[in-house]
Amino acid sequence: MAETQLRILVVDDERPIRRFLNASLSGQFTILEAATGEEALAAAISARPDVILLDLGLPDIDGLEVTRRLREWTQIPIIIVSVRDQEEHKIAALDAGADDYLTKPFGVGELTARVRAALRRAAHPESEPIFQKDDLLVDLARRNVLKQGQAVSLTPTEYDILRVLVQHAGKVLTHEQLIRSIWGSENVSGEEDSHLLRVNVSNLRRKLETDPSRPRYIVTEPGVGYRLKTA
Amino acid sequence: MAETQLRILVVDDERPIRRFLNASLSGQFTILEAATGEEALAAAISARPDVILLDLGLPDIDGLEVTRRLREWTQIPIIIVSVRDQEEHKIAALDAGADDYLTKPFGVGELTARVRAALRRAAHPESEPIFQKDDLLVDLARRNVLKQGQAVSLTPTEYDILRVLVQHAGKVLTHEQLIRSIWGSENVSGEEDSHLLRVNVSNLRRKLETDPSRPRYIVTEPGVGYRLKTA
DNA sequence: ATTCATCTTGACGACTTCTTGAACCTTTTC
DNA sequence: GAAAAGGTTCAAGAAGTCGTCAAGATGAAT
Fold first, then answer.
1. Which residues of chain B neighbour A100 with C-beta distances below 8 Å?
2. Do residue A87 and residue B107 have CB atoms under 8 angstroms apart?
3. A200 and A226 Cβ atoms separated by less than 8 Å
4. How many CA atoms lie within 13 A of B116 on its CB side?
5. What phi and psi, each to the nearest 5 degrees, are found at residue A223?
6. How confident is the model at residue A189, as a pLDDT?
7. How confident is the model at residue B53 (pLDDT cuts 50, 70, 90)?
8. What is this structure's pTM?
9. Rounded to an integer, what distance in angstroms lies between the CA atom of residue B164 and that of residue A95?
10. Shortest CA distance to A55 belongs to which of A27, A84, A95?
């Protein structure tokens, strides 16, 4: 086993801070840098770092949004590093999917200790966030869906449904679970939402399935929900 | 799906703090308390909490030592809650195996957010209850039933019956118990429901058993109920 | 203001599942 | 062996669920 050095992606728009973090961590880790949210998302996909240090105040996409988008396809540990000390910021970031929240200024020792803790937990080897079966390919990291090599254009809602199905491929997801993860936990009233889900699944099938009346991928589990077939 | 409430072990020698944490968290979680390190270690073993909130300043064993001893056998998330704000304490605790370090005083919102984050991370190793015998396989987590490797399609009612039987595999379930857990405790009138149960069991057997007239899996206990054979 | 894509709602037919009654089988009891 | 009790199977209507189409509502972009 080649002990490759672990990689940390540092995301901050201020150059001095990136330099500081780089200097603090480069002894033990390989450092990658990104100055904007877009850069961060791109780097996460192409470089697959082992930990991401993320500033909240980015010029383009807010750090919270970056966290959410990352969490759509990966469990890479995210440690927020921010000047914002208010509790609501911390809560929002942690609930968006961040693993830890560190307020500037902080000690280098604490930072590296928290990075070590995050790495220790994440030791599970992660499988590629890609679903493939027959002529359908879903790449969650790139937000790409290919049918017979052709890109399929999905609406946001359709993609969300497909993403949740892929993230639990093989398992049955109940109507409620799907509705919750797509429209939020508030609106789970009943038949109306179920119907909405059915319409969207129908549209999704029309785009993905060769024969929508006999689905190979998204199968209905009558009275329960839907399942993305793995085999 | 049995939605058991998640359990948090609160370890602190000061009663007021335990009470405060208990009050803050008891809405969402079941709280267990320990006042000493010994108590904490014993409770962790006997009660298997899902998260441990640990104060460093305990009267008998130091919190750091408690963390190390816990880490000898478990990966239960440990969140240190301490008045000690110096960096070296944080580093030592995190390197001892703690997942997070929160300095008193802190907001309840941040605490619960960090608890949620810890739970989310730890939720991965899901133990999947699977029943297998001969050529029948029931995977409750995936809601999958395989007969000779072939997926069997069950109606919601049929699956419910099978699920209850699997959850009590080997034990005899009375008609009443089965009816209660499938149609609710209200309608347990009498012969009508018993008959309904029989019809559904019959349909279930037709799908699962190789020879429905001589059942190998779901056996009838005359005058009592049904039983799922384990061996 | 207009356009466009998307979301949402309603209507309806096709299909699945539930429930019930009747007939048939099996075991126990007298 | 006949009767009774309990259990199983079949079939058919009732009830409910699902998929699809299409029209209206929403909201962002021009």
1. 100, 117
2. yes
3. no
4. 17
5. 80, -5
6. 59
7. very high
8. 0.83
9. 35
10. A84
